[in-house]
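S.,

Sequence below, as promised.
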Amino acid sequence: MNPYKMVVAVANQKGGCAKTTTAVNLAAALAKGNRKMGLPPAKVLLIDLDPQGNCATSFGVEKKSVKKTTYDLLSNDLGDELPLMDEYLLSPKKLTEAMRAAWSLRNGGKKAPANITSGNLWLLPSDIHLSGAEIELSHKIGRETRLREALLPIVDNFDYIIIDTPPSLGLLSINAMCAANWVMVPVQAEYYALEGFSMLMNSIKMIQRRINRQLKIFGVVMTMVDSRSKLSRHVCDQVNTKMPNKLFNTTVRRLVKVAEAPWSGAPTVILNKPTNSGSGAGSLEYWTLAKEFHQRTLEMRREFGVNEVPRLLLDRQNRQNLTPPPN
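The prediction came back faster than expected:
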C-alpha cells in the first residue's frame, strides 16, 4: 500500500468526544466538495467499525435493511477477495435515497430539499453483531490485520477512506489503525480527556512499533469547545503543547444543531447551509475542518513528492476510454 494513501482512522478510546460526528461530517464534506471554500469533490469511503452503527443512522439508513456489514467482512475465513463494491458498500445513490426518505418522514411527508444528496460517498455500515467480533477473532490468525487485507483490492478506488472506531482500544480499533496510514484524534475540551489522550498516544506508538510502521498522526481536532470556559482553553493549550504542529486550527463547538442533525437523517454539512450563526454554525465549522484537512493533505503530498490523481478524474477518463467512437 502507498504509505501516503489517505486511509484515516478517527480514533479515541474516550467516549462522547464526537468521533462519529467528526468522521461522518468530514467524509460527507470531502465527498460533496464546496467550490466557494476551495474544496474539490472527492471519492470517499466511510467505514463504520463501531458496533453502535451510528454512521448508518447519520444517513437515515435503516440498519435492519442492511445485508452486509463490517462484521461479515472481519469474520470472513475463506481468504478470498470479497465483492466489496457490489455487495458490502452502500452507494451514493442508496445513501441519498435513505437521507431523503428520513427527512421526509421527519417533516410530515414533504419532499426533501435538493441539497440532501451524498455526492461521491460510499458507506460500509456496521451493526450490533460487530460487538461479538472481538471475542470471535481473539483466537484467529491475522486478527489484527483483517480489515487491511479486506480493503486492499479497493483501497486505490478512493481519494479518502475514513474509519470510525469504537470508544475503546480493543481489537476493532487495532484493526482500524492497522488498516490506516493516518490517525485523526478528536479530543473533547474537558479535563478527563487529557488522561485518555496520553493513553491513546501510547497505544499508537505500540501499534507503530509492532504492527503498522506506516501509521502516523495526521492531526488532533478539539471538539465540544466552549470558548467562554477557562477549562476549554486550558485543555486546548495542553494538547497543543503535547502535539505541536498537529492541532487543527479549526475547533468544533458544542452546538445543539450538530447533535440534532442525525434525527433529520443527514449530517449537518449536508442538512444545513454553512453560516456564521444559527443552524449553519456547526456546518460551517465542519466544512472549515474539511478544507483544512484537504489543505494539510496537499501539503503532505508536496513535501514527500506524492502525486495522486483524483479518483473522480480517473473514473471519468476510464468511462471516456470505454465509450465506443461514433459511426
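The first helix runs from residue 19 to 32.

Coffee later?
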